[in-house]
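Two proteins, back to back. First:
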Amino acid sequence: MVLEHIRQAMAQMAASRARTALTVLAIAIGVLSVVLLVSLGQSALVSLTRGIEAIGGTRIVIVWPDAPQVAAMKQASYTDGLTLADARALRARLPRVASVAPVAGGGEDSEAVHAGGGRMARLDIAGVDEAYISGHALKVQEGRDLTAGDLDRREHVCILGRLAADRLFPDGRAVGREVRVADTRYRVVGTLAMALKAGMRFGTDWNEVVLLPLTVASPEGRLRMISVTTTASRHNPEVVALANSLLLHRHRQVDDFQFLDLGTMIAGYYKAYDAMILVVGLLAGVSLVIGGVGITNMMLVGVVERTREIGLRIALGAPAGTIRQQFLIEALVLACVGGLAGLGAGVGIVSLLASIVPRFQPEWTVVLSWPAVGAAVFATLATGVAFGWMPARRAAALDPVAALRGDAA
């Protein structure tokens, strides 16, 4: 019986190609919108979350220099900014902290770095200490990390990011050789493994960087930032509060710094993602309603065109439930054709992007949102039932005598 209803539905769709195409297109656009936009939003969130997890996760709190807000009038009385002494004080006095990594230099400007054979590359320069690489979950691929002795002795040594090493030493043998930054030569003691951080760089491209001992890069101890990794993200607010109090005391109550709590930041991104899903749902819902109206229109026209057929079936004893079932199935078939078209297009586009995007942006991950697929399937079925119910009920309620005369619709 059901298969027969499906066959009849396909025949009706074939008989009204133009109306069928417009209705299917509207439903397909709605389903495509849900699958594609939600998947892209989830892909961005997944890539960002993985990037943050790759540098230590939501346990990281960044301290940046900032213009004073509360104590702006006192700025002239304190001009040191963030210093290495601040970082050491945080390391010594903050509880629930796994590492404190001070950073000098870096930021927006790159510098020319020269190697033998006339090779030159513009790279980020960052002054760091022995806590930087482990604190940001970076890995030394060849050679060694910086040590406390390198900083104490102000050794002219450096570590190269993976792409920086490849550009300066194409033969793959960077460790033990020298590079020149400005007028100073540095011996390469290590190279980093490729870092895929999805944009989480804090002003430094970890693949195109030269890491110098902080005491050499900034002899006066001035810092660009301090990265604090807590033992668990739930301790971030406590650490921020204590760090704020400690730095205010050290900076003579001048609040020339700010905090970036990655745990709070990620929570904000998830809220934005939820809001985006709501907006996408509303936009897709408009398209599905348009498609649903097309389903209702097609089914009502079908009731009019098949009045005699319906009347004959009722006269021969067909229950009203059977007639209603037939038209509901026809509406569902029409909705499902549009839903499958949109779903196929959405999955296809996401799959295509998943194979292309990593070739140009290796740190980005494109994923298919299965909840979006499930929501699209449910919305398609709901549209078929909701907008097919009225025509199905009208067909089942026809008076057989009037329908046989063709007077009812």
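And the second protein:
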Amino acid sequence: MKQILDLHIHSKYSRACSGQLTLENIDAACRVKGIDVIATGDFTYPQWFEAIKNELEEINGGGLYQRRNAISCVPIGEQDKNLNAKYCVPTKFILSTEVALIYKDGGPHARRIHLVIMAPNIEAAGKLNNYLDKNFNIRSDGRPILGMSAPDLVKTCLDIHPQFLIYPAHIWTPWFSVFGSKSGFDKMEECFREQTKNIYAYETGLSSDPEMNWRLSALDNLTLLSNSDAHSLANLGRECNVFDLNDFSYQEIYGIIKNKDLKKIVKTIEFYPEEGMYHYDGHLTCGISFMPSETKKHKGICPVCKKPLTIGVLNRVEELADRPSDIIPKKSYPFVKLVELDKIIAEALGVKSRSSTKVKAEYDKLIKNFGPELFILMDLPLDKLAGRTLPLIAEGIKRVREGKLAIKPGFDGQYGEIKIFTTAEKLQGKTQKPLF
């Protein structure tokens, strides 16, 4: 059965994350979004790990979990029986966390790396937590900072259980990533050394998409994963993966990722990378945003403050790429780019905030009438929207599917700006009403 998996999120215990990120709320939000398997996030944080142990129960001993006494059927939408039944099933949780490594490896500068760790069960996660708690501070943040090298972390995890899965998070972002321009490496082997053989995957991050990653041949044998890294309920599933699962177990998911099983990996669901906050180079405080060619002309220096620019993802990809931009590797799989439904609604309504009352009301109506958000964005026949929502909203979904957008790329920590409609179209749209 096709299942949507988001394998990297955070809890309310991580810095700059919403207090609404509880297990109960995550479960409810995933049903509305259409996410089948969600990361717990932050299992290294003691209070969150206690919540995981107390509020979740293992499903058939397979390393996936669900909320205790979860309501098993919350049908939403006018879907066919098979699809509706799918979303009656409680959200499945998989033990996952992100850690920050800050260390020196003999060079003059510290390395700063974010890694995702997936654990095969609560027992293994608990053993890792005990080790980390004795040697590092894991009690100050849901995403702990560890003073250990990437190879040492991988070895530590695998010594506890051979089916821990460790892989680089958002591998291109400047500040905390394997290939980041500020503190990363040029090759996986430079980072993971003797443990490189135990790295089976990588996460694209919001500022890159599969086509960008395909340009680096060294990544061909690794499984490309896209996850939301969500800091709020609204951002769950903004990037995710679609797998064809039979056993619904951690072991099955682990095997698919480890072996890059192209028969089981259906596709990834992507952010438009230009919308990511590190796509272009620049200086936010100086208002400078450059594409790589402009950065080269300025020799990497900000023309305003005369300090080095923050080199973004696109530039870094071009620096390390050994293939042209139109390459499609043999071991690749499909992907689709989406814009979240509430963003489409907000622009169609001419409202700045995606969390406004007007946007929420229209969003809730669409979910009630048609089903989960990801189903609406990817699979709902657009003719079914006729007369059920504003024409501009239906047109927005259509344009997102077709990639007919105008995007001002993000840079130096600022998200890009997506424009689906012209000003004239939005003004005209305000006068449109559903045809009942």
